Structures are given as structure tokens and as C-alpha cells.
Amino acid sequence: MHEMGIASSVIEAVRVEVTRHPGARATKVGLRLGEWAGVDAESLRFCLEVLVKDTELEPLALDIDFRPRGSELDIAYLELEE
Amino acid sequence: MERVAIEKKVLSENDRLAQALRSQFAECGTLVLNCISSPGSGKTSLLERTLEGFSPDTRVAVVTGDIQTDNDARRLARFGFPVRQITTAGACHLDARMVEKSLEGWDLGRLDLLLIENVGNLVCPTSYDLGEESKIVILSVTEGDDKPLKYPGAFAKSRLMVLNKIDLLPYVPFDMEAARRNARSIHADIEIIETSCTTGGGLETWRHWIAERMRSTADSRQQRVARQLG
Fold it and tell me: Which residues of B touch A45 (CB under 8 A)?
């Protein structure tokens, strides 16, 4: 439930960014995830896969930069291709 | 392939809203405390005993979150202070928008203290800023003394840990010293208060802690007003 909400926010941010690059499609999103952020990385990965399935974003690779003892929950970057 | 930096918090919309609430609370001089714990740690009992100790003219209100039922709101409303229930219908935490909505119709300028009882959960509520001045984590002695290590986020982000149900210590293998040590290994400066809602032990210290923070919130507001006028 919680991870699904987080995944929806990530997808929303990806969509906003993609609209700034007409003609490009998103291929990978990079997240920064702290150990104490209260988010399970595998569950988040699963939720993102479910949310992009059968949409213009599929396939979207996920790169998680895991930070021990951190509270980060950030979208660091997006990779796009023409 | 092109890589663009985004550098955006995933929950930026929640954070934006929480920051707006925080500014509003500060402007009104309302101290807001976000109480987080596992289900059954005694959040509602602690709030009951807190409200019970206030004189009727105390300008306090409570927002309480649960997945279902308004049982807690009904328990807390008995003390005559304004109480609102947020029923999340499945969501495991409160977010800033829920809190904003729950405040509709309340004049914050007439509130010195807003107590938020989050949904019973030690994980998800820690991710959502509600605009509070402080998070408070409640850990009862019927749980494990290693919970700070298992759920570090809640302890890392809370200003205060309340060790509750201490009257049950003779009956459970809970090690108070280990709990304190574990909490401080996650958050070195965390403040700790021990309470029992059954015997009333420690409640004076807890009320004093709240009163101090209310005073400091009111002082900050006065200083800001003085700066604006000056």
C-alpha cells in the first residue's frame, strides 16, 4: 500500500519530466533510498513494474542507490532516449 | 541516451503541503505533535490521560487517524476538547493532505496545541511529514526492547520516545536500559520519558514536556510578531 503510493509519485514525476523532452522516452529512473526511509526496495520495484505495465513507460529500468543510515527518498535522475 | 538530473524528493508534493501547514501552525503559535507507534502501544490512552490533565480552557484539539472506525475519536471526545477522526480506509499512514482537510473549519489562531495520533504503524508514518513541530514515538514495554533497531526510521526522526506501560515491567522481559541504549544508537539526542497510563507514573513529566514546547512555540510566535511590527 505504502510502496504503491510512493511508486505512483515516482511515475508522476517521470511523466512530468518526459513532457519536457518531446519525442524522448524514459528508459531508466534513478532513486536514492535511505535505509530509514521506511520503504522496502523490492516492494517498490514490484509496484513500479505493475504501474508501468502496458503503458507508454514500459519497460522502465529502476536504479536504486541505497544509503545506509539515511532517510533519503529522492528521484535522482532519469535516462531518456530519442 | 541522455541522463537528466531530477533531484526531487519522491514525496515532494506532500512535503510542500506539510511545509505550508508548518508555516501556518507557526504563524498561529500552534504546537503540533505527531504521535507514532505500533498498534496497541497506548497512543490513545496516553492522549486520554493528557487531555484529562488539561484545564477546560486549554486550547487543545486532537486529530486521530485509523484505518477504520471512529472509536478513538469517541474515546477522546469525552474530555470536551475538539476531536476529529481521519479514517484512511486502508492507507497505513496519515499524509499532509489528510491533516489539512481534517482542520477545515477550525480556527488555528484559537489553538495552542494540536495532537495528531497517527495510524498505528512504525514504518509508513515516518515517511510523511504532516507539518508537525515534533514527532513522538511511543514504545510500550510489552513490545521488544530492540524495536528502535528494527524500525530505526521512527526513532531517528522523533524528538521524544515515550516508554509506555511501565507498570507492566514486573511481568515482561523488557530491558529498559537496552531500549534506551538502542534508541540512542539510532538517535543520540532522543529525549526519553517513561509513563504508565494506568498508574499515572511519569505523566507529570510528559505534561511538563508538552507545556515547555508550547511555551517555546508561543515565544517564537511572539518574537516573529515583534519583528514584523518593529
Answer: none
